[in-house]
Amino acid sequence: MIKIVFADDHEMVRIGVSAYLSSQPDMEVIAEADDGGEAVQLALSLKPDIILMDLVMEKMDGIEATRQIIDKWPEAKIIIVTSFLDDEKVYPALEAGATSYMLKTSKASEIAKAIRATYEGQSVLEPEVTGKIMTRMREKPMEQMHDHLTDREMEVLLLVAQGKTNQEIADQLYIALKTVKVHVSNMLGKLDVQDRTQAVIYAFKHDLIQ
Q1: Alpha-carbon dihedral of residues 135, 139, 142, 147, nearest 10 degrees?
Q2: Cα separation, 168 vs 166, whole angstroms
Q3: Is CB count within 10 Å lower at the N or C end of the chain?
Q4: Cα-atom radius of gyration of the chain, to the nearest Å?
Q5: Phi, psi (degrees; rounded to nearest 5) at 31
Q6: Residue 142 — very low, low, confident or very high, per pLDDT cuts 50/70/90?
Q7: Smallest Cα–Cα separation from 59: which of 34, 93, 88?
Q8: Contacts of 22 (CB under 8 A, 6+ apart)
């Protein structure tokens, strides 16, 4: 049996969904909560297989409840079941640790299907949520290797690109030769290149130098 804790501040919603899920041969709603704080207590004390979590509840919302549960029990599997698709709900809920995200407009059978899939280790997202995530990924600039360089390592890279030796870099930056070697080594590692020549090629390709 898949043991479920259901948190929603609308009693009629809880009654309807719980009745349907409990009619399934492989599911059992073992507890219900009408606010996020109670959901946290029930989740941590009962350790259910699945937690169905509404987002907008009094006292504590579903995002904070999800965050607290995951913080204390990282293995918890939480399915958000909500009416909201706006960005300020979707992304914080997923970042808090929710495994799946469903809408209350979904059919009861779809909720049950999502529960089974989440129980098996899958992540189930409403198509609209998947679309939002893909759009956000396309709009977000790809992280570059050189983003991880410190200011000093970037200075060293630019001087290497100018053909400076380690000693010349040390003299220009007023640092020890040994320190330059450390910076060069770190710079090569962060850029994932094998030698100084490849580092210069990387700098040209990414318009770090002309």
Answers
A1: -140
A2: 5
A3: C
A4: 26
A5: -165, 155
A6: very low
A7: 34
A8: 28, 29
Please check whether the domain covering 145-205 is classified as CATH 3.20.20.370.
no
Rounded Cα distance, 77 and 49, in Å: 7
Residue that has been written with the tokens 């956000």 in this structure: 136
CB atoms within 10 A of CB 30: 15
Q: Which pLDDT belongs to residue 210?
A: 64
Q: What is Dmax (Cα atoms) for the chain? A: 78
* Residues facing residue 103 across a β-bridge: 82
Confidence of residue 163 (pLDDT cuts 50, 70, 90): confident
CA 48 to chain centre: 22
Rounded CA separation 41/99 (Å):
19
Q: Where are the beta strands (DSSP E) in the chain?
A: 2-7, 27-33, 50-53, 78-82, 100-103
The amino acid present at 120, given as its one-letter code, is E
Going from N- to C-terminal start, the domains of the chain cover 2-139, 145-205
Q: Are 183 and 153 contacting, i.e. CB atoms less than 8 angstroms apart?
A: yes
Give the pLDDT confidence of 50-63 residue by residue, as tens digits: 999 999 998 899 99
